[in-house]
Amino acid sequence: MKTILVASSKGGAGKSTLATNLAAYFALDGKRTVLVDADPQHSSTRWAERRAEMESAVLPIDASSKRAWRAWLPDDAERVVIDAPAGSMADDLQHFIEHADAIVVPVLPSAMDIEATVGFLNSLSKVSRVHKRQLPVGLVVNRSKPWTNTSQQAVEMLKTWPYPVVAQLRDTQAYVVLAGLGRSLFDYRSAQVRDHQADWDPLLKWIKKA
Ligand SMILES: Nc1ncnc2c1ncn2[C@@H]1O[C@H](COP(=O)(O)OP(=O)(O)OP(=O)(O)O)[C@@H](O)[C@H]1O
Ligand SMILES: [Mg+2]
């Protein structure tokens, strides 16, 4: 079983977007996938409910008020994706971090968002397994507009941080539309969607290695 925690204290950075798309990717890859929703907003639970009839359904588990979330995991779960709530630092997420095989942190490419994420990353660096490099942390630049100076400067700034930038996902309305349908980028095959799927390749490779 592989467990991926998607987390950042910064609101609206793309945690649920990353968590739901990752969960769909694993399910479409034939893995029994659980989406642990740690956010009382329940965005990813509603998303999973919308795809409940699909062959690549994922099982949602509400962990927003339960520390004993692992008791709800089916024995045959192969992939677990955890969608963390905004406002949580590493200490608040300890009961997820201790079971994680990798932590993915989405960051929007703006000075304000980057500054707001520093505190969260500092809190992660105090986690013993992170500090000893036993638990990898990867940054995902989300809603990137690669043709703009702002996005380019943000990526350059993030590359100086002690955690690798493992993907840059471009800004596209597709994520907004698909979230509302209980779908993911990986449910489609059109040329335009495939182009955006390619943004995920380095992240998926990094997760495979983790
Ligand atoms: N790459 C993207 N391109 C365009 N829109 C995006 C992208 N990623 C996320 N969004 C949109 O941005 C909004 C915030 O994303 P999301 O809900 O995933 O963030 P979050 O970190 O889970 O927020 P919260 O902290 O409230 O839980 C959503 O409307 C989502 O559809
Ligand atoms: Mg969310």
Automatic annotation (TrEMBL):
Gene3D superfamilies: P-loop containing nucleotide triphosphate hydrolases. SUPFAM superfamilies: P-loop containing nucleoside triphosphate hydrolases (SSF52540). Residues 4-174 form the CobQ/CobB/MinD/ParA nucleotide binding domain. PANTHER family: COBQ_COBB_MIND_PARA NUCLEOTIDE BINDING DOMAIN-CONTAINING PROTEIN, P-LOOP CONTAINING NUCLEOSIDE TRIPHOSPHATE HYDROLASE. This is ParA family protein.
